[in-house]
From TrEMBL:
<dbReference type="GO" id="GO:0016829">
    <property type="term" value="F:lyase activity"/>
</dbReference>
<feature type="coiled-coil region">
    <location>
        <begin position="97"/>
        <end position="131"/>
    </location>
</feature>
<keyword id="KW-0456">Lyase</keyword>
<keyword id="KW-0175">Coiled coil</keyword>
<protein>
    <submittedName>
        <fullName>Citrate lyase, alpha subunit</fullName>
    </submittedName>
</protein>
Length: 142
């Protein structure tokens, strides 16, 4: 470059241009880049930590899901068994109910038969009482 001024100022000279360029260059840029890299590395570490925690959680959830499925299957088996036991018990109870009704009907039949026999016996006793009364009257009248 040529000199713009003939003075002792370095304005326009290569040295001046170099000085201006040096001033323009941000010397903090490498420091900023290093800081950004450190921040990014920290962020990456945190993300890796989060990923590890998430993997642990996912593993735990899968384990718990397996446990829940086993418990559900066990509960289903128990419910099925209880349902069949209830059904069997209902059948037995229904049979016993029919037997009791049959026995009650039989007892009612016997009671009806006894009532009829009692009515017949009462009538016979009344008839005998009348005969006895009649005979007494006859005997007293003699």
């Amino acid at each position: 470059m040529e000199l713009l001024h003939d003075s002792n100022d370095l304005v326009g000279s290569l040295d001046c241009e170099l000085k201006r360029l040096e001033e323009k260059i941000d010397t903090s840029l490498p420091v900023t880049i290093v800081d950004d890299l450190r921040r990014l590395n920290d962020e990456i570490r945190r993300l890796k930590d989060v990923e590890a925690v998430m993997n642990t959680v996912v593993s735990s959830v899968k384990e718990q899901d397996g446990t829940i499925k086993k418990l559900e299957e066990g509960a289903r088996k128990i419910i099925t068994e209880m349902t069949s036991q209830i059904t069997a018990t209902e059948v037995v109870v229904a049979g016993k109910h029919r037997d009791l009704i049959s026995k009650i009907d039989e007892i009612n039949g016997r009671i009806d038969s006894l009532e009829k026999k009692i009515d017949v016996a009462v009538r016979e006793l009344k008839s005998e009482a009348r005969k006895t009364s009649f005979l007494r009257k006859l005997l007293w009248l003699d």
